[in-house]
Design goal:
The protein has 644 residues and is of the alpha+beta class. Strands 2, 3, 4, 5, 8 and 9 form a six-stranded antiparallel sheet that branches. The chain has a five-stranded antiparallel sheet with strand order 1-13-10-6-7. A hairpin with a 4-residue loop joins β11 and β12. α8 packs parallel to α10. The longest helix is centred in the middle third of the chain and has 49 residues.
Length: 644
Amino acid sequence: MTSEERAGIEKMLAGGVSGRERVDLLNKVAVEYRFSEPQRFCDYATEACTAAEEIGYTEGLARAERHLGYFYEQQADYPKTLSYCSKALEHYKSVPGLSTEIIATNNLVAKVYANLGDFTKGLEYLYESLRLSEETGNKTAETNTLNSMSVLYQRLGNAAKAEECASRGLTLAAELTDQRVLGVTMVNLGNAYGMTKDWTRALEQWKTSLSIFEKLGDEDLQSSVLGNMGITHMNLGEYDRADEYLSRCLAIKKQTGNRYDVARSLQNLASVSSSMKQYRKSLDYCREGLELAALVDARSLEYQLWYEMAAAYKGLGDFENALTCFEKYHSLEKEIFTEEMRLKTDALQLRFAIEKSEKEKEIYRLKNIDLAEANEKITIQKEVIEEKNRDITAGIRYAQRIQEALLPQESALRHGFSEAFVAYFPRDIVSGDFYWSLISEDAVLFAAADCTGHGVPGALMSVMGAAFLSEIVNERGVTDPAEALNLLRLKVITALQGKEERDATESGLRDGMDIVLCRYEPASRLLRFACANNPLWLLRKGNITEFGADKFPVGLHHGAMMNFTTRQVTLQPGDQLFLFTDGFADQFGGTKEKKFGYRRLRELFVSIAGLAAAEQKAALEKAFREWKGENDQVDDLLVIGVKA
């Protein structure tokens, strides 16, 4: 919209236009000020909201509420953002034919939950958006949703999924005429390349997208690309160029007024300044960033800024202040992860408790109704209970889609190996077993884990464990397997035990996971690994060598809290590794109804060694089905096989 068109609309509003036309004009002009003058954007949206309520104009009200959601998201006021978006979704869904608006609101909500660290909740909204966009054939909405999914997977540390979503989005965007959507998609594809340190391809995508945004005059998107390029040059050790790009990014962010983004830019500049040994400049950036982070309660940024401040004081030789800042960093980091995980766990437990309570109330009522009405009411209540069960099951199946989306693709496990397979069978719909993989600059890390429980409780533990592993490797840079497991144990204990409950109660002793974590360097064929309660098997020339585990889990346990041990072995061509949980060995079946056992499992692995990965997986599945027969599956099952 040109400045003349905007002025014309504002003149019409001042002239007293009323009714739906007034609401539509208020919403239309509000958008024009979203980035240039956020407060005017808010004022117009608020006025539109009031006017729409007065005349009962539902669609106009929903649009105004979504605008207010955008405004408060810019201010990092997430409770208000979620409140307005919730109202907007309720109103949009009451009016037929507004799927595009629902998708846009869902994607905003997903972004907020991601900023709050609740990635699972964010994915729920994005998968709903993806379903709606595919059903309606809305390619623009589908592309935007895939972009949002790519961003969320980036934050989860899942490079393969991030690239997959961005690549799908780019294919769709190429068919559209919307250059802005095309540019955003290229940014996300570049981000995915950056996660695997493919900087050349990443910079190519970003340079093209920056050119698009400059032609469009979109300064907000320009700043995001400049930030990405600055961080890339920082990782490449090109600090002057990094400082140039990040300074340009900061200048634009300050103009648009998003305090969270400004604080993030300041943190990046503080890191670059320290790398350039400009420690006092780094401290100035940190102080400014901390003031802004405190204003918007962005504690996830605060603790990173305290870390940068500690590094700057250390560079100046001021070890006393460096220690003080590091203690604040460490304290805040522990507080953030403890609080987030407790809130998520409490919320999920409450939801399932409510569902259970409702079912129990229905059953109680059935026992106390008059005999004369019994048959009719039993039939009605039975239908109610069955419907509730269907709803709960549908919810858990949706959780299954989310859990499976969080798991890495088998292709990620093939990095540096000639072949790989994953045999994964949850006992219930969702699983307490999980596998994880992350590609670093010169190695691939991968793990197989068995969390306490199965079904929903086990799945909660598995999602938490995978997220913690990604944070330990991605953000803290820890790649030694034993050190990573030591940190993972600390995070699990901190998340599941309140400060007043740190004693090793029997309940607490059951919470945790058994896991094998490996780090493999393809160039040297060196495998380093650490095992918590589960062993690692190496098949070489028809014989299996078992590397025993440290006999304690990732969690609380009886006895002294000892460190995990990293061991190493150099692989030879043709060697095969097997990582597995106890689900296969513990399965009852056969003619004598006993456990499969580890001896049979060893013999099975040796017997399939000469097969291709896909055939090995099929043989394992067949053997498990035949052994289990008509028996119930007793536990989740996971087997990973990789061949050098």
